[in-house]
Structure to design on (291 residues):
């Protein structure tokens, strides 16, 4: 049973993401993620400017003047949100926790999908697949999905992206548009990432917090790894420690960027101190221009 406070928080997020997924934004999403193939719609009389290659010569001969065949794009897509609920997302030093930013991004994409009549589902994972929500249509389904993302308590707090991608490829057999939303604090998943990109249309949305890139000077402080529970006392003002910390974060960011590039995967960056709409609009615009 949800507490009243959590229910109001989810309700607010549901309203916010639905409002942000405006008709204009939905149009950009639709043009960025195309259907596969076309289907015959109708035959109509030829109009100036129509492609002569679309003329139906049989019908034209029967009626004595030109008619053309009209085709529509097969639009309906299956969208899968691959969502990282590991312990590292229970962190945030700015406007929100990374888990909240993840839920907001997932809710936004889910609303964009249903506005264009696509089906949307989700795979919630940590070091294992925690829950699979099969793809469906409708606003009520998005409400259920957002509620699960926001309130689900994972059984494990570690991360295994490789395992999540392997599960996705077995569970979702038909081609899907997949969004991996994660802080990507993991290694060793390049092979499964490439396999997923060959089977599905994969995009990575990387979640981060400014404090993860530049550690603030707080003197001696205790740090707890939310995934392992390990506690470490460090001097945050020590130059050597800060340099090692920044170097490791830069290495991880570079690793994700490089494997995405090698696999032909789109990558968008979201931060807890930034916006959601603008980075996603840039992502959609890049895809639209490429298409």
């Amino acid at each position: 049973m949800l507490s009243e406070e959590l229910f109001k928080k989810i309700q607010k997020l549901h309203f916010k993401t639905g409002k942000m997924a405006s008709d204009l934004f939905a149009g950009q999403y639709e043009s960025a993620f195309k259907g596969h193939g076309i289907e015959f719609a109708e035959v109509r009389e030829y109009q100036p400017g129509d492609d002569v290659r679309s003329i139906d010569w049989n019908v034209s001969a029967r009626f004595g003047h030109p008619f053309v065949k009209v085709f529509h794009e097969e639009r309906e897509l299956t969208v899968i949100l691959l969502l990282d609920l590991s312990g590292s997302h229970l962190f945030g030093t700015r406007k929100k926790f990374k888990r909240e930013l993840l839920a907001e991004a997932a809710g936004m994409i889910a609303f964009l999908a249903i506005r264009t009549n696509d089906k949307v589902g989700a795979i919630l994972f940590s070091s294992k697949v925690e829950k699979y929500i099969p793809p469906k249509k409708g606003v009520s389904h998005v409400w259920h999905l957002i509620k699960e993302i926001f309130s689900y308590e994972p059984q494990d707090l570690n991360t295994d992206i490789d395992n999540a991608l392997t599960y996705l490829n077995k569970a979702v057999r038909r081609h899907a548009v997949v969004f991996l939303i994660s802080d990507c604090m993991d290694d060793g998943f390049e092979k499964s990432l490439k396999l997923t990109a060959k089977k599905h249309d994969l995009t990575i949305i990387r979640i981060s917090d400014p404090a993860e890139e530049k550690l603030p000077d707080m003197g001696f402080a205790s740090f707890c790894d939310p995934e392992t529970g390990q506690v470490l006392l460090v001097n945050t003002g020590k130059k050597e420690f800060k340099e090692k910390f920044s170097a490791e974060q830069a290495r991880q960011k570079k690793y994700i960027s490089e494997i995405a590039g090698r696999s032909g995967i789109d990558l968008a960056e979201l931060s807890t101190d930034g916006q959601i709409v603008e980075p996603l609009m840039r992502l959609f615009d890049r895809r639209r221009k490429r298409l």
Summary: The first strand starts at residue 38 and ends at 45. The chain has a mean pLDDT of 87. The beta strands are 38-45, 67-73, 78-84, 119-125, 129-136, 177-182, 201-208, 220-224, 231-235, 266-271.
